[in-house]
Amino acid sequence: MSENVLKVEHVTMQFGGVVAVDDLNLEVNKGEIVSLIGPNGAGKTTAFNVITGVYQPTNGAVYFQSQKIVENHPRGKMRKQYLGENEGKYSHVLAPTPDKITKLGIARTFQNIRLFKSQTVFENILIAEHMRRHSNLFSATLHLNAAEEAEMRSEAYRLLHVLGLDDVRDELATSLPYGKQRRLEIARALATKPSLLLLDEPAAGMNPQETDELTDFIGKIRDDFHLTIFMIEHHMNLVMEISDRIYVLDFGKLIAHGTPEKIQNDPRVISAYLGVQEDE
């Protein structure tokens, strides 16, 4: 039986009179690469923002490894949020926070690259490593935990080597070619040691060669890091080649779900992307 990693249950996200996501239900199982596709404005990134705690949904809930991590909270009442075994299990909060969700094991990248522009490649990775540090600000300031800092630096070097970025580790992040900036953003997400990786249009702006390299790269990190990957993407060749399953959104509603072969031949998906004549 497949082990469920992510479950989105009846999630609705409304902004005033606009319903960006409408009663979304989906599941991602351990080890899968699952894609979320749809036309521009379909609600894909909004769904990612709900999953990662950027938005609190108008309705519904998100489960990660069978634990509820996000839920709707009408009228601003307090609710419980799962924080993990090492943090007392629950904390009363008004809304989920992205940092807590990252610590649970969910990392993401963004449609528009968000690297630390004034930092080097190595420093971008090291910053993400600090998400898992055990020392507090006081001990870090006084350099009381040099062993942990050395371990994080060593892990950052190892990650750069594994992902083919060690030759540019001292370069400013923004000086890299576009394809390597995308790879660095993924590497930074991996530095938080996730079990679920969310990729928001990783092939956006890439040329065909870079897209082919990215396709191989995503498959490699899934296998090498034992990841589950949930991805938004418009590049259909990449989606159809690498996805185990695909969900399709249109105007916030789920209109199709299945294997790449099934999605390619679904008339509702073809209509959403290409449009059809009324008599057809």
SSE order and pairing:
Layout (H helix, E strand, L loop, with lengths): L3 E12 L2 E12 L3 E5 L6 H8 L7 E6 L2 E5 L7 E6 L4 E5 L4 H7 L1 E3 L12 H9 L7 H5 L4 H17 L15 H13 L5 E5 L7 H17 L3 E5 L3 H7 L2 E6 L2 E6 L1 H5 L2 H8 L6
Parallel strand pairs: 3-10, 3-11, 8-9, 9-10
Antiparallel strand pairs: 1-2, 1-4, 4-5, 6-7, 11-12
Helix pairs in contact: 3-5, 3-6
Outline of the structure:
Helices cover 34% and strands 27% of the residues. The chain has helices at 44-51, 98-104, 121-129, 137-141, 146-162, 178-190, 208-224, 236-242, 260-264, 267-274, and strands at 4-15, 18-29, 33-37, 59-64, 67-71, 79-84, 89-93, 106-108, 196-200, 228-232, 245-250, 253-258.
Give a verbal description of the structure.
The longest helix has 17 residues, at about 145-160. This protein is an alpha/beta fold and about 280 residues long. It is globular and about 55 Å long. The strands form three sheets. The chain has a six-stranded mixed sheet, with helices on both faces. The protein has ten helices and twelve strands.
Observed structural traits:
10 helices, 280 residues, alpha/beta, globular
Order of helices and strands: EEEHEEEEHEHHHHEHEHEEHH
How many E strands?
Answer: 12
Uncertain stretches: 75-94
The span between the termini is 41 Å
**CA-based shape:** globular
User: Major sheet, described briefly?
Assistant: 6 strands, mixed
Strand content: 25-35%
Number of DSSP helical runs: 10
Which percent range fits the helix content?
A: 25-40%
Counting copies of identical and different chains, the oligomeric state is: single chain
Please tell me the overall pLDDT.
Answer: 86
**Based on helices, strands and strand pairing, what is the structural class?**
alpha/beta
* Order of strands, widest sheet: 8-9-10-3-11-12
